[in-house]
C-alpha cells in the first residue's frame, strides 16, 4: 500500500510489492546456487533501507558485534536506490547475507527460487524467536505457512482517525458499527463537512476501504485464498458485497465530490482532515506522525483514533486488522554464516532493541513491547495501537504488498476505476477474477 510513499515520523518506506517483485524477478534467473554470498570471511553483510530509522539498526549491529566472532556489516542503501541496489547485488557473488524487506509479494520471487532460508524450524525450536514476537505479525510476513522473515521495525496497522472536536460538537461517538458510521456520514454531510478525507489520486488509499470491508464481511480467509494463488476467490460473494458497499459510500458522498483529484502523498488529504473540512480519515498508523509534523496543534488537540467498525451480517472478527505489519529481515540461503545470521536476527526480540524503536517513535512488534510504551512520544496512541495488533486474531498484509506484480498492479488499476465510477462492482469482480 502506498507506492513510493515515505512514512513520516519513523521514515519507514512504503513500497509496494508490485514494484519490489518486478525489480527482483528479473534477477532470479541469474542467481546461482553458489556456496556463499561473497562476504568476507567472518563478516555478514546486511542490506537495510536507508532512512532515519537506520540508527536503530546500526546500534543493534554495534551491540551484536561486541560479542560475536562473525561481525555484521550494515549497508544502508538510500531509499530511491534500494530496489535496484538489491536487485543488482542479489544477481552477483556479493549478495547480502541478510536483507530488509516487506514480506509477502516482495519476497515471493526469492522464495519461489529457493533463495531464502526457511526460518520455520528456528521459530519452532528457539524460544527467543517463538515467544519474542506477536504471532499475527510473524504470520503476516510468512508465505505458504513458512516463516521467511524476522520482524525488525515498527507496526503499521490501518486505523480510523477522527476529529474528536467535530464529533463532540455534533453529539457523535466514534463509530463501532456500520449504522454508527452511516449516522456520522449523514450528520457531517448536513453540516457541509466531508465525512472522510480520501487521497484518490493514490489508489492505495482507496484499497484500505476494500481491505477492511472484505475482512469484516467475509473474514480474512477470502483474501488468504487469493494471496495463495486462487484468483477464483475474487468471485466470493463477500468481494462483491465489499465493492457494492464501497460504491454506496461513494454515491452517498462519504468522500465528497472531488476526492479523485486529492492526493495523499502530496499532503492534500491530511490537510483537509487537519483543517476540519473532513471529519474522518482511514489511514495507516503513520497518520499520527504525519499530522504531528504538519499540523501539530490539530494532532495534539483534535486527533483521535479507533478501530474499523463492524458490518452487520459479516463473519469477520471485529478485532481483525489490515495494513503493513512491519518490515522484516530475511536470510540468503547462500550465506556462509547462517547460524550467526540467525543469532543476529534473534537480537531483534531484545528489550534493548524494542526500547530503541520506541524512542524513535515506532511501536515494536515484540511480545515485550507493552511495558516500554510509556516512554513513547504519545503513550496513549502507542498503547492503543499495540493492543489493537496484539489482540488481533488476524493481521492481513496490504493486498498490494501481499500479491505479486502481475496481479497487484492491475488490481490497483481496477480499484481506482471502481472509485472513479468507471466500472461497476460486478465489472470490478470479473476483472479481478481474470487476473492469473
TrEMBL record:
**Keyword annotations of the record:** Lipoprotein, Signal
Q: Where are the transmembrane segments?
A: none
Q: Does the keyword Disulfide bond apply?
A: no
Q: Matching PROSITE patterns, A to Z?
A: PROKAR_LIPOPROTEIN (PS51257)
Which Pfam family would be a valid example here? SBP_bac_1
Top-rank taxon of the source lineage equals Bacteria
- PANTHER family, sorted: ARABINOSE-BINDING PROTEIN-RELATED, BLR3389 PROTEIN
From the Swiss-Prot or TrEMBL record, give the protein name: Sugar-binding lipoprotein
Question: What is the species listed in this Swiss-Prot or TrEMBL entry?
Answer: Streptomyces pristinaespiralis (strain ATCC 25486 / DSM 40338 / CBS 914.69 / JCM 4507 / KCC S-0507 / NBRC 13074 / NRRL 2958 / 5647)
Q: What is the lineage of its organism?
A: Bacteria, Bacillati, Actinomycetota, Actinomycetes, Kitasatosporales
